[in-house]
Automatic annotation (TrEMBL), chain B:
Protein name per its UniProtKB record: Phenylacetate-CoA oxygenase subunit PaaI
Recorded GO CC terms: cytosol
InterPro entries linked to this entry: Aromatic_CoA_ox/epox, Ferritin-like, Ferritin-like_SF, PaaA_PaaC, PaaC
Species assigned in the record: Nocardioides marmorisolisilvae
Name of one Pfam family that matches: PaaA_PaaC
Gene (UniProt): paaI
Amino acid sequence: MSTFEALIAAQDRVEPRDEMPGDYRATLVRQIAQHAHSEIIGMQPEGDWITRAPSLRRKAILLAKVQDEAGHGLYLYAAAETLGVDRDDLLEALHTGRQKYSSIFNYPSLTWADVAAIGWLVDGAAIVNQVPLGRCSYGPYARAMVRICKEESFHQRQGFESLLTMSRGTPAQHAMAQDAVDRWWWPSLMMFGPPDAESPHSARSTAWGIKRFSNDTLRQRFVDLAVPQAEALGLTLPDPDLRWDEERGSWDFGTIDFTELREVVSGNGPCNEVRIGRRVAAHEDGAWVREAAAAYAAKQGTRGAA
Amino acid sequence: MSSSSEVDTGMVLALADDALVASHRLSEWIARAPSIEEDVALANIALDLLGQARLLYALIGDEDELAYRRPAGAFRNAVMLERPNGDFGATIARLLLLAAHQHALYSSLAAADGDLGAIAAKAVKEVSYHRDHARAWTVRLGDGTEESHRRMQDGLDAEWAVWGELAPTQEAVDWATAVITQATLRVPGPVLAVERQEHTADLDELLSTMREVTAVHPGATW
Protein backbone atom coordinates (compact mmCIF):
# COMPACT_ATOMS: atom_id res chain seq x y z
CA MET A 1 0.00 0.00 0.00
CA SER A 2 1.34 3.47 -0.90
CA THR A 3 1.56 6.18 1.76
CA PHE A 4 -1.36 7.90 0.06
CA GLU A 5 -3.54 4.79 0.18
CA ALA A 6 -2.61 4.23 3.80
CA LEU A 7 -3.55 7.81 4.72
CA ILE A 8 -6.91 7.51 2.95
CA ALA A 9 -7.60 4.08 4.51
CA ALA A 10 -6.82 5.43 7.99
CA GLN A 11 -8.95 8.54 7.28
CA ASP A 12 -5.89 10.66 8.00
CA ARG A 13 -5.19 13.95 6.31
CA VAL A 14 -3.16 14.21 3.13
CA GLU A 15 -0.82 17.18 3.39
CA PRO A 16 0.85 19.19 0.59
CA ARG A 17 4.20 17.37 0.82
CA ASP A 18 2.67 13.90 0.75
CA GLU A 19 2.77 11.98 -2.49
CA MET A 20 -0.62 11.82 -4.16
CA PRO A 21 -1.99 10.49 -7.44
CA GLY A 22 -2.14 13.03 -10.26
CA ASP A 23 -5.90 12.60 -10.59
CA TYR A 24 -6.43 13.27 -6.89
CA ARG A 25 -4.43 16.47 -7.20
CA ALA A 26 -6.27 17.51 -10.37
CA THR A 27 -9.69 16.80 -8.85
CA LEU A 28 -8.85 18.91 -5.80
CA VAL A 29 -7.47 21.78 -7.87
CA ARG A 30 -10.65 21.81 -9.93
CA GLN A 31 -12.93 21.63 -6.90
CA ILE A 32 -11.06 24.14 -4.70
CA ALA A 33 -10.65 26.57 -7.60
CA GLN A 34 -14.35 26.32 -8.43
CA HIS A 35 -15.12 26.96 -4.81
CA ALA A 36 -12.79 30.00 -4.67
CA HIS A 37 -14.25 31.37 -7.90
CA SER A 38 -17.74 30.98 -6.43
CA GLU A 39 -16.81 33.14 -3.46
CA ILE A 40 -15.42 35.85 -5.73
CA ILE A 41 -18.29 35.84 -8.24
CA GLY A 42 -20.72 35.49 -5.32
CA MET A 43 -19.70 38.96 -4.12
CA GLN A 44 -21.50 40.50 -7.09
CA PRO A 45 -25.22 39.70 -6.62
CA GLU A 46 -25.13 40.85 -2.99
CA GLY A 47 -22.46 43.51 -3.35
CA ASP A 48 -24.74 45.41 -5.70
CA TRP A 49 -27.09 46.00 -2.76
CA ILE A 50 -24.57 47.45 -0.28
CA THR A 51 -25.17 51.01 -1.45
CA ARG A 52 -28.96 50.44 -1.40
CA ALA A 53 -29.40 48.60 1.93
CA PRO A 54 -32.47 50.03 3.68
CA SER A 55 -30.89 50.67 7.10
CA LEU A 56 -27.36 51.43 8.26
CA ARG A 57 -27.37 48.27 10.39
CA ARG A 58 -28.26 46.10 7.38
CA LYS A 59 -25.66 47.93 5.31
CA ALA A 60 -22.95 47.16 7.88
CA ILE A 61 -23.96 43.48 8.04
CA LEU A 62 -23.91 43.17 4.26
CA LEU A 63 -20.57 44.96 3.88
CA ALA A 64 -19.04 42.62 6.46
CA LYS A 65 -20.53 39.62 4.69
CA VAL A 66 -19.21 40.54 1.26
CA GLN A 67 -15.83 41.26 2.82
CA ASP A 68 -15.90 37.75 4.34
CA GLU A 69 -16.59 36.29 0.89
CA ALA A 70 -13.53 38.00 -0.56
CA GLY A 71 -11.57 36.61 2.40
CA HIS A 72 -12.93 33.11 1.78
CA GLY A 73 -11.85 33.41 -1.84
CA LEU A 74 -8.35 34.27 -0.65
CA TYR A 75 -8.08 31.29 1.75
CA LEU A 76 -9.33 28.94 -0.92
CA TYR A 77 -6.92 30.20 -3.58
CA ALA A 78 -4.17 29.76 -0.98
CA ALA A 79 -5.37 26.18 -0.35
CA ALA A 80 -5.30 25.51 -4.11
CA GLU A 81 -1.78 26.95 -4.33
CA THR A 82 -0.55 24.24 -1.92
CA LEU A 83 -1.26 21.84 -4.79
CA GLY A 84 1.28 23.57 -7.01
CA VAL A 85 -0.94 25.90 -9.02
CA ASP A 86 -0.80 29.67 -9.17
CA ARG A 87 -3.67 32.03 -8.33
CA ASP A 88 -3.11 34.10 -11.47
CA ASP A 89 -3.52 30.98 -13.60
CA LEU A 90 -6.70 30.03 -11.77
CA LEU A 91 -8.14 33.52 -12.30
CA GLU A 92 -7.21 33.27 -15.95
CA ALA A 93 -9.11 29.96 -16.13
CA LEU A 94 -12.14 31.65 -14.52
CA HIS A 95 -12.00 34.59 -16.90
CA THR A 96 -11.75 32.43 -19.99
CA GLY A 97 -14.43 29.97 -18.85
CA ARG A 98 -12.10 26.97 -18.49
CA GLN A 99 -13.05 26.70 -14.84
CA LYS A 100 -16.54 27.12 -13.44
CA TYR A 101 -18.12 28.76 -10.44
CA SER A 102 -21.37 27.85 -8.73
CA SER A 103 -24.28 28.35 -11.13
CA ILE A 104 -26.39 29.84 -8.37
CA PHE A 105 -24.64 33.17 -8.96
CA ASN A 106 -25.94 33.29 -12.52
CA TYR A 107 -29.38 34.19 -11.22
CA PRO A 108 -30.12 37.89 -10.73
CA SER A 109 -30.66 39.57 -7.35
CA LEU A 110 -33.71 41.65 -8.25
CA THR A 111 -34.81 43.09 -4.90
CA TRP A 112 -33.49 43.73 -1.42
CA ALA A 113 -35.27 40.57 -0.25
CA ASP A 114 -32.99 38.57 -2.56
CA VAL A 115 -30.07 39.47 -0.30
CA ALA A 116 -31.90 37.88 2.63
CA ALA A 117 -33.05 34.87 0.58
CA ILE A 118 -29.48 34.31 -0.62
CA GLY A 119 -28.32 34.36 3.00
CA TRP A 120 -30.98 31.95 4.15
CA LEU A 121 -31.11 29.52 1.23
CA VAL A 122 -27.86 29.83 -0.71
CA ASP A 123 -25.63 30.11 2.35
CA GLY A 124 -27.77 27.47 4.03
CA ALA A 125 -27.22 25.06 1.13
CA ALA A 126 -23.53 25.95 1.03
CA ILE A 127 -23.20 25.06 4.72
CA VAL A 128 -24.86 21.66 4.21
CA ASN A 129 -22.46 21.02 1.33
CA GLN A 130 -19.40 22.34 3.09
CA VAL A 131 -19.62 21.07 6.66
CA PRO A 132 -18.64 17.53 5.54
CA LEU A 133 -15.74 19.04 3.56
CA GLY A 134 -14.28 20.06 6.90
CA ARG A 135 -13.48 16.34 7.19
CA CYS A 136 -12.23 15.91 3.63
CA SER A 137 -8.97 14.07 3.12
CA TYR A 138 -6.91 17.03 1.93
CA GLY A 139 -5.68 18.96 4.99
CA PRO A 140 -5.47 22.55 3.68
CA TYR A 141 -8.94 22.33 2.10
CA ALA A 142 -10.48 20.75 5.20
CA ARG A 143 -9.02 23.44 7.46
CA ALA A 144 -10.16 26.25 5.15
CA MET A 145 -13.67 24.77 5.18
CA VAL A 146 -13.89 24.63 8.97
CA ARG A 147 -13.05 28.31 9.17
CA ILE A 148 -15.37 29.28 6.31
CA CYS A 149 -18.35 27.33 7.67
CA LYS A 150 -18.24 29.26 10.95
CA GLU A 151 -18.63 32.54 9.07
CA GLU A 152 -21.22 31.10 6.68
CA SER A 153 -23.47 30.06 9.53
CA PHE A 154 -23.42 33.64 10.78
CA HIS A 155 -24.41 34.81 7.29
CA GLN A 156 -27.20 32.28 7.14
CA ARG A 157 -28.65 33.45 10.46
CA GLN A 158 -28.51 37.05 9.32
CA GLY A 159 -30.35 36.15 6.12
CA PHE A 160 -33.03 34.31 8.05
CA GLU A 161 -33.46 37.17 10.51
CA SER A 162 -33.70 39.77 7.73
CA LEU A 163 -36.27 37.67 5.88
CA LEU A 164 -38.27 37.21 9.08
CA THR A 165 -38.36 40.97 9.63
CA MET A 166 -39.69 41.44 6.09
CA SER A 167 -42.14 38.59 6.36
CA ARG A 168 -43.61 40.17 9.51
CA GLY A 169 -43.42 43.69 8.08
CA THR A 170 -45.75 45.53 5.73
CA PRO A 171 -47.74 43.56 3.12
CA ALA A 172 -45.36 44.89 0.45
CA GLN A 173 -42.34 43.65 2.42
CA HIS A 174 -43.95 40.26 2.96
CA ALA A 175 -44.72 39.97 -0.76
CA MET A 176 -41.14 40.88 -1.63
CA ALA A 177 -39.81 38.23 0.78
CA GLN A 178 -42.14 35.57 -0.67
CA ASP A 179 -41.19 36.47 -4.24
CA ALA A 180 -37.49 36.14 -3.43
CA VAL A 181 -38.00 32.72 -1.82
CA ASP A 182 -40.08 31.62 -4.82
CA ARG A 183 -37.21 32.46 -7.16
CA TRP A 184 -34.28 31.14 -5.06
CA TRP A 185 -35.75 27.85 -3.82
CA TRP A 186 -35.23 25.64 -6.87
CA PRO A 187 -31.83 27.06 -7.82
CA SER A 188 -30.74 26.38 -4.21
CA LEU A 189 -31.73 22.71 -4.54
CA MET A 190 -29.67 22.53 -7.73
CA MET A 191 -26.58 23.66 -5.79
CA PHE A 192 -26.18 20.03 -4.66
CA GLY A 193 -25.42 18.99 -8.22
CA PRO A 194 -26.98 16.37 -10.47
CA PRO A 195 -28.81 13.36 -9.04
CA ASP A 196 -26.52 10.59 -7.79
CA ALA A 197 -27.24 8.40 -10.81
CA GLU A 198 -25.90 11.13 -13.10
CA SER A 199 -22.94 12.28 -11.05
CA PRO A 200 -19.95 10.79 -12.88
CA HIS A 201 -17.09 11.70 -10.52
CA SER A 202 -18.87 11.03 -7.23
CA ALA A 203 -17.70 7.46 -6.65
CA ARG A 204 -14.04 8.31 -7.09
CA SER A 205 -14.28 11.45 -4.93
CA THR A 206 -15.97 9.37 -2.25
CA ALA A 207 -13.26 6.69 -2.39
CA TRP A 208 -10.64 9.41 -1.99
CA GLY A 209 -12.35 10.88 1.06
CA ILE A 210 -13.05 14.20 -0.67
CA LYS A 211 -16.77 13.61 -0.79
CA ARG A 212 -18.43 12.24 2.35
CA PHE A 213 -22.11 12.18 1.33
CA SER A 214 -23.89 11.89 -2.00
CA ASN A 215 -25.55 14.84 -3.75
CA ASP A 216 -29.03 13.49 -3.10
CA THR A 217 -28.30 12.80 0.58
CA LEU A 218 -27.13 16.36 1.13
CA ARG A 219 -30.04 17.79 -0.87
CA GLN A 220 -32.50 15.88 1.31
CA ARG A 221 -30.72 17.09 4.45
CA PHE A 222 -31.12 20.67 3.22
CA VAL A 223 -34.83 20.27 2.41
CA ASP A 224 -35.45 18.76 5.84
CA LEU A 225 -33.78 21.76 7.49
CA ALA A 226 -35.44 24.36 5.26
CA VAL A 227 -39.09 23.26 5.45
CA PRO A 228 -39.60 23.98 9.17
CA GLN A 229 -37.56 27.18 8.83
CA ALA A 230 -39.88 28.37 6.04
CA GLU A 231 -42.79 27.71 8.34
CA ALA A 232 -41.15 29.75 11.10
CA LEU A 233 -40.65 32.54 8.59
CA GLY A 234 -44.31 32.50 7.62
CA LEU A 235 -43.33 31.94 3.99
CA THR A 236 -44.20 29.12 1.61
CA LEU A 237 -41.84 27.09 -0.54
CA PRO A 238 -42.85 26.94 -4.23
CA ASP A 239 -43.31 23.17 -4.40
CA PRO A 240 -46.84 21.68 -4.32
CA ASP A 241 -45.35 18.20 -3.86
CA LEU A 242 -43.69 18.93 -0.53
CA ARG A 243 -45.08 16.51 2.05
CA TRP A 244 -43.82 14.77 5.15
CA ASP A 245 -42.98 11.13 4.63
CA GLU A 246 -43.54 9.43 7.96
CA GLU A 247 -41.72 6.28 6.94
CA ARG A 248 -38.54 8.00 5.75
CA GLY A 249 -38.74 10.68 8.42
CA SER A 250 -38.01 13.20 5.67
CA TRP A 251 -39.78 15.64 3.38
CA ASP A 252 -40.70 14.44 -0.11
CA PHE A 253 -40.23 17.12 -2.72
CA GLY A 254 -41.05 17.66 -6.38
CA THR A 255 -38.96 16.91 -9.43
CA ILE A 256 -36.08 19.27 -10.06
CA ASP A 257 -35.72 20.68 -13.57
CA PHE A 258 -32.13 19.70 -14.22
CA THR A 259 -32.43 20.79 -17.84
CA GLU A 260 -32.39 24.32 -16.50
CA LEU A 261 -29.31 23.57 -14.39
CA ARG A 262 -27.47 22.22 -17.43
CA GLU A 263 -28.37 25.35 -19.39
CA VAL A 264 -27.08 27.62 -16.65
CA VAL A 265 -23.90 25.54 -16.19
CA SER A 266 -23.22 25.65 -19.91
CA GLY A 267 -23.35 29.44 -19.90
CA ASN A 268 -26.95 30.23 -20.79
CA GLY A 269 -28.15 31.42 -17.41
CA PRO A 270 -29.64 34.88 -16.95
CA CYS A 271 -26.42 36.47 -15.67
CA ASN A 272 -23.45 34.39 -16.88
CA GLU A 273 -22.17 37.09 -19.20
CA VAL A 274 -22.73 39.92 -16.74
CA ARG A 275 -20.88 38.14 -13.92
CA ILE A 276 -17.83 37.15 -15.94
CA GLY A 277 -17.86 40.47 -17.82
CA ARG A 278 -17.73 42.40 -14.59
CA ARG A 279 -15.03 40.15 -13.13
CA VAL A 280 -12.86 40.50 -16.26
CA ALA A 281 -13.42 44.27 -16.37
CA ALA A 282 -12.30 44.62 -12.72
CA HIS A 283 -9.20 42.54 -13.49
CA GLU A 284 -8.32 44.47 -16.64
CA ASP A 285 -9.05 47.89 -15.12
CA GLY A 286 -6.77 46.97 -12.23
CA ALA A 287 -3.88 45.73 -14.39
CA TRP A 288 -2.00 49.04 -14.16
CA VAL A 289 -2.28 48.95 -10.37
CA ARG A 290 -0.90 45.42 -10.10
CA GLU A 291 1.89 46.29 -12.54
CA ALA A 292 2.76 49.33 -10.46
CA ALA A 293 2.90 47.25 -7.27
CA ALA A 294 5.19 44.73 -8.98
CA ALA A 295 7.44 47.48 -10.40
CA TYR A 296 7.67 49.17 -7.00
CA ALA A 297 8.52 45.90 -5.27
CA ALA A 298 11.20 45.19 -7.87
CA LYS A 299 12.74 48.65 -7.33
CA GLN A 300 12.75 48.11 -3.58
CA GLY A 301 14.52 44.78 -4.12
CA THR A 302 17.16 46.47 -6.26
CA ARG A 303 17.57 49.30 -3.76
CA GLY A 304 17.81 46.79 -0.93
CA ALA A 305 20.52 44.86 -2.77
CA ALA A 306 22.47 48.00 -3.71
CA MET B 1 -22.59 60.24 29.42
CA SER B 2 -22.81 63.57 27.67
CA SER B 3 -26.23 64.62 26.48
CA SER B 4 -26.87 65.87 22.97
CA SER B 5 -27.16 69.45 24.21
CA GLU B 6 -23.48 69.38 25.18
CA VAL B 7 -22.17 68.26 21.82
CA ASP B 8 -21.69 70.53 18.85
CA THR B 9 -24.40 69.06 16.65
CA GLY B 10 -23.15 70.76 13.51
CA MET B 11 -19.63 69.41 13.95
CA VAL B 12 -20.85 65.90 14.76
CA LEU B 13 -23.11 65.90 11.72
CA ALA B 14 -20.27 67.05 9.49
CA LEU B 15 -18.01 64.26 10.80
CA ALA B 16 -20.76 61.65 10.43
CA ASP B 17 -21.83 62.80 6.97
CA ASP B 18 -18.22 62.83 5.76
CA ALA B 19 -17.82 59.26 7.01
CA LEU B 20 -21.12 58.00 5.55
CA VAL B 21 -20.61 59.56 2.13
CA ALA B 22 -16.98 58.40 1.91
CA SER B 23 -18.08 54.89 2.97
CA HIS B 24 -20.71 54.85 0.23
CA ARG B 25 -18.22 55.74 -2.51
CA LEU B 26 -15.66 53.19 -1.23
CA SER B 27 -18.29 50.47 -1.12
CA GLU B 28 -18.91 51.04 -4.83
CA TRP B 29 -15.46 49.50 -5.41
CA ILE B 30 -16.45 46.12 -3.99
CA ALA B 31 -16.08 43.37 -6.60
CA ARG B 32 -14.42 46.00 -8.82
CA ALA B 33 -11.08 46.47 -7.04
CA PRO B 34 -7.70 45.78 -8.72
CA SER B 35 -7.12 42.68 -6.57
CA ILE B 36 -9.08 40.54 -4.14
CA GLU B 37 -6.87 41.79 -1.29
CA GLU B 38 -7.97 45.28 -2.22
CA ASP B 39 -11.65 44.27 -2.26
CA VAL B 40 -11.11 43.15 1.34
CA ALA B 41 -9.21 46.30 2.32
CA LEU B 42 -11.64 48.78 0.77
CA ALA B 43 -14.63 46.93 2.25
CA ASN B 44 -12.92 47.04 5.62
CA ILE B 45 -12.30 50.78 5.40
CA ALA B 46 -15.86 51.40 4.18
CA LEU B 47 -17.13 49.39 7.15
CA ASP B 48 -15.01 51.38 9.62
CA LEU B 49 -16.30 54.66 8.20
CA LEU B 50 -19.88 53.42 8.31
CA GLY B 51 -19.37 52.40 11.93
CA GLN B 52 -18.04 55.86 12.78
CA ALA B 53 -21.02 57.51 11.09
CA ARG B 54 -23.46 55.32 13.03
CA LEU B 55 -21.88 56.09 16.42
CA LEU B 56 -21.82 59.80 15.65
CA TYR B 57 -25.43 59.88 14.41
CA ALA B 58 -26.52 58.07 17.56
CA LEU B 59 -25.09 60.96 19.62
CA ILE B 60 -27.52 63.40 18.07
CA GLY B 61 -30.52 61.42 16.87
CA ASP B 62 -31.77 58.32 15.05
CA GLU B 63 -29.20 57.00 12.59
CA ASP B 64 -31.67 55.92 9.92
CA GLU B 65 -33.74 59.07 10.24
CA LEU B 66 -30.57 61.08 9.67
CA ALA B 67 -29.22 58.92 6.85
CA TYR B 68 -32.40 58.06 4.98
CA ARG B 69 -34.92 60.82 5.60
CA ARG B 70 -32.96 64.06 5.78
CA PRO B 71 -33.00 66.37 2.75
CA ALA B 72 -29.75 66.47 0.77
CA GLY B 73 -29.44 70.17 1.55
CA ALA B 74 -29.12 69.36 5.27
CA PHE B 75 -26.05 67.14 4.72
CA ARG B 76 -22.81 68.67 6.02
CA ASN B 77 -20.31 66.47 4.18
CA ALA B 78 -17.54 67.99 2.10
CA VAL B 79 -18.37 68.05 -1.61
CA MET B 80 -15.05 66.32 -2.44
CA LEU B 81 -16.42 63.16 -0.81
CA GLU B 82 -19.67 63.03 -2.76
CA ARG B 83 -18.00 63.22 -6.17
CA PRO B 84 -18.18 59.98 -8.15
CA ASN B 85 -15.17 57.67 -8.02
CA GLY B 86 -12.52 58.08 -10.65
CA ASP B 87 -9.82 55.46 -11.14
CA PHE B 88 -8.05 53.67 -8.29
CA GLY B 89 -5.41 56.41 -8.11
CA ALA B 90 -8.10 59.03 -7.50
CA THR B 91 -9.70 56.85 -4.81
CA ILE B 92 -6.35 56.43 -3.07
CA ALA B 93 -5.65 60.17 -3.30
CA ARG B 94 -9.03 60.96 -1.74
CA LEU B 95 -8.51 58.37 0.99
CA LEU B 96 -5.02 59.72 1.73
CA LEU B 97 -6.32 63.24 2.25
CA LEU B 98 -9.46 62.20 4.12
CA ALA B 99 -7.56 59.88 6.46
CA ALA B 100 -4.85 62.49 7.09
CA HIS B 101 -7.55 64.99 8.06
CA GLN B 102 -9.62 62.56 10.12
CA HIS B 103 -6.56 61.29 11.95
CA ALA B 104 -5.59 64.79 13.11
CA LEU B 105 -9.16 65.70 13.98
CA TYR B 106 -10.06 62.52 15.85
CA SER B 107 -6.73 62.63 17.71
CA SER B 108 -7.59 66.04 19.10
CA LEU B 109 -11.19 65.03 19.90
CA ALA B 110 -10.05 61.83 21.61
CA ALA B 111 -8.71 63.90 24.51
CA ALA B 112 -12.22 65.08 25.36
CA ASP B 113 -14.39 63.40 27.99
CA GLY B 114 -17.71 61.82 27.18
CA ASP B 115 -19.13 59.88 24.27
CA LEU B 116 -17.56 61.94 21.53
CA GLY B 117 -14.12 61.46 23.05
CA ALA B 118 -14.68 57.71 23.23
CA ILE B 119 -15.89 57.54 19.63
CA ALA B 120 -12.92 59.60 18.49
CA ALA B 121 -10.47 57.38 20.41
CA LYS B 122 -11.83 54.30 18.63
CA ALA B 123 -11.84 56.10 15.29
CA VAL B 124 -8.19 57.15 15.62
CA LYS B 125 -7.15 53.50 15.62
CA GLU B 126 -9.22 52.74 12.54
CA VAL B 127 -8.14 55.83 10.68
CA SER B 128 -4.47 55.06 11.42
CA TYR B 129 -4.91 51.92 9.37
CA HIS B 130 -6.67 53.85 6.58
CA ARG B 131 -3.78 56.31 6.53
CA ASP B 132 -1.22 53.51 6.36
CA HIS B 133 -3.11 51.81 3.58
CA ALA B 134 -3.43 55.01 1.53
CA ARG B 135 0.22 55.90 2.16
CA ALA B 136 1.42 52.47 1.00
CA TRP B 137 -0.57 52.72 -2.24
CA THR B 138 0.36 56.34 -2.88
CA VAL B 139 4.04 55.38 -2.67
CA ARG B 140 3.63 52.24 -4.80
CA LEU B 141 1.66 54.05 -7.48
CA GLY B 142 3.79 57.20 -7.40
CA ASP B 143 7.05 55.24 -7.57
CA GLY B 144 5.72 52.31 -9.63
CA THR B 145 5.41 52.65 -13.40
CA GLU B 146 5.17 55.71 -15.63
CA GLU B 147 1.44 55.13 -16.05
CA SER B 148 0.77 54.70 -12.33
CA HIS B 149 2.84 57.81 -11.56
CA ARG B 150 0.78 59.86 -14.02
CA ARG B 151 -2.56 58.52 -12.74
CA MET B 152 -1.63 59.00 -9.09
CA GLN B 153 -0.50 62.57 -9.78
CA ASP B 154 -3.73 63.30 -11.68
CA GLY B 155 -5.81 61.91 -8.83
CA LEU B 156 -3.84 63.86 -6.27
CA ASP B 157 -4.09 67.13 -8.21
CA ALA B 158 -7.87 66.77 -8.48
CA GLU B 159 -8.45 65.87 -4.81
CA TRP B 160 -5.89 68.30 -3.39
CA ALA B 161 -7.59 71.21 -5.18
CA VAL B 162 -10.75 70.66 -3.09
CA TRP B 163 -9.14 69.40 0.13
CA GLY B 164 -9.41 72.85 1.73
CA GLU B 165 -13.10 72.25 2.27
CA LEU B 166 -12.23 69.70 4.97
CA ALA B 167 -10.05 72.39 6.58
CA PRO B 168 -7.12 70.02 7.26
CA THR B 169 -4.81 71.02 10.09
CA GLN B 170 -1.17 71.90 9.45
CA GLU B 171 -0.25 68.52 10.90
CA ALA B 172 -2.41 66.74 8.32
CA VAL B 173 -0.97 68.82 5.48
CA ASP B 174 2.59 68.13 6.64
CA TRP B 175 1.94 64.42 6.88
CA ALA B 176 0.40 64.25 3.39
CA THR B 177 3.22 66.38 1.97
CA ALA B 178 5.81 63.95 3.34
CA VAL B 179 3.99 60.98 1.78
CA ILE B 180 3.68 62.71 -1.58
CA THR B 181 7.37 63.55 -1.57
CA GLN B 182 8.32 59.99 -0.66
CA ALA B 183 6.13 58.81 -3.54
CA THR B 184 8.20 60.94 -5.96
CA LEU B 185 5.06 62.96 -6.72
CA ARG B 186 4.67 66.73 -6.95
CA VAL B 187 2.95 68.52 -4.07
CA PRO B 188 0.18 70.40 -5.88
CA GLY B 189 0.44 73.67 -3.93
CA PRO B 190 -0.82 75.37 -0.80
CA VAL B 191 -4.07 74.15 0.73
CA LEU B 192 -6.53 76.98 1.12
CA ALA B 193 -9.18 76.39 3.76
CA VAL B 194 -12.60 77.29 2.40
CA GLU B 195 -16.15 77.07 3.68
CA ARG B 196 -18.06 73.87 3.03
CA GLN B 197 -19.44 74.17 -0.50
CA GLU B 198 -22.98 73.83 -1.83
CA HIS B 199 -23.84 70.22 -2.59
CA THR B 200 -23.99 69.08 -6.17
CA ALA B 201 -26.22 66.72 -8.11
CA ASP B 202 -23.69 64.00 -7.16
CA LEU B 203 -25.07 63.97 -3.61
CA ASP B 204 -28.65 63.73 -4.93
CA GLU B 205 -27.60 60.75 -7.03
CA LEU B 206 -25.78 59.13 -4.09
CA LEU B 207 -28.74 59.57 -1.73
CA SER B 208 -31.29 58.38 -4.26
CA THR B 209 -29.27 55.18 -4.65
CA MET B 210 -28.96 54.81 -0.87
CA ARG B 211 -32.72 55.35 -0.50
CA GLU B 212 -33.87 53.25 -3.42
CA VAL B 213 -35.47 50.60 -1.19
CA THR B 214 -36.68 52.82 1.65
CA ALA B 215 -38.32 55.22 -0.82
CA VAL B 216 -40.74 52.54 -2.03
CA HIS B 217 -41.47 51.18 1.45
CA PRO B 218 -42.32 54.20 3.58
CA GLY B 219 -42.80 53.37 7.24
CA ALA B 220 -41.28 49.89 6.95
CA THR B 221 -38.72 48.58 9.42
CA TRP B 222 -35.84 46.36 8.32
